[in-house]
């Protein structure tokens, strides 16, 4: 048994040795193959590295060349800049030397002037002392006496000379103005409408005039007192004239006369009753007029009080233009402009319609119509954009929205078109009062009168305070103040009158 085992073990050992040898041979072959591959890869890597290194060297050479060129250009620029700085430094040094030379020259001149001034002052002092010794007057007294003699010598000559110069200048200005006016008249013409501050009331018969006047004029006095209208009788047959600058007062008087004639009883008590009825009816009528105006332009949402005030504008005029008609016209113009510009049409239209609402109460409450209008619109809860649109039409407030510009433009267009406006008695009287008020502010003016429809003002002065020469200066001062504070067409002649009366009694 044991003998059979040994051969088997020998065969196994031989098999194991043969397998080991075979495996070693295979491993050696694989290692050799791997080694060859690694050698090839290392060789390839060396070649790639050499190529990259060569490319890097080429790029570095290019960069180096570029850097050298830039450095060369920069060096050239620095050289140029250094040359310029050297030249500028040389120029500055030259200028400094020139300034130093001039300063030395000026110092020498100043020293000479100081010396001359000292010598002159010494001579003046000696001359003044000699003059005081000879004349017995001090230097100030001598100056006063000299000026007094010169003033007396030329006092009469200066006014005539000044008047002559003013006349020549005025003639030249008038000639030029005539040429301008003639040219303007040839190029443009417009219709002229007389000022209207009266209404004619036609009577059914002439006998009613006596009833309207009443016993000893009591009826007509009651009418005038209650309505504030002047009633002119016997100007024309079968009619009487109602005169007042306020159309609202004239309308109340006209309605009262209609009621009295229809009733037949004309007496103070009945007149007072009919005047009150007319006022109430006119209030309702103004409400209807305001509603119609708002409906015409398509403005909604206004309070009853605002509509009544709007209707009241129907009885207000501005330079002869009906204020309500002007406002309605502005609303249409504003709507068209806003539509073209892409602005808010409703805001522009409402702002234009209400822009003069303050004029409905301007005679009752102090303040400008713009400020009163703003307060009214805020009181009745009108939208803030509408208030901002209307408040700038006279530039009392800055323009803050596109609609404010539109309302201002529409105001100018409506007012400036030919025939839209004319001067009225209100503005006429106001202008005359303002003219006299300005003149009376000057010291030495006794009284003044505005004449020729405000084209001339005659000023009477106190002769003890104003002499002839001062009168000429006063006329100039008054004319300058009028020109700076008043707006008026044409020119205003300022006529200063000085009259001295010497009165004495022989006893």
From TrEMBL:
Carries keyword Oxidoreductase?
no
- Supply the enzyme class, top level: hydrolase
Limits of the HD domain: 323-416
**Per UniProt, what is one Pfam family of this protein?**
HD
Q: Which residues form a coiled coil?
A: 35-126
Q: Which GO MF term does the entry hold, naming one?
A: RNA binding
Q: Which InterPro entries does the record associate with it?
A: HD/PDEase_dom, HD_domain, HDIG_dom, KH_dom, KH_dom_type_1, KH_dom_type_1_sf, Ribonuclease_Y, RNase_Y_N
Q: Which GO terms describe its cellular component?
A: plasma membrane
Database matches in Gene3D superfamilies: Hypothetical protein af1432 (1.10.3210.10), K Homology domain, type 1 (3.30.1370.10)
Biological process according to GO:
mRNA catabolic process
Name this polypeptide is given: Ribonuclease Y
Its source organism is: Candidatus Harrisonbacteria bacterium CG10_big_fil_rev_8_21_14_0_10_40_38
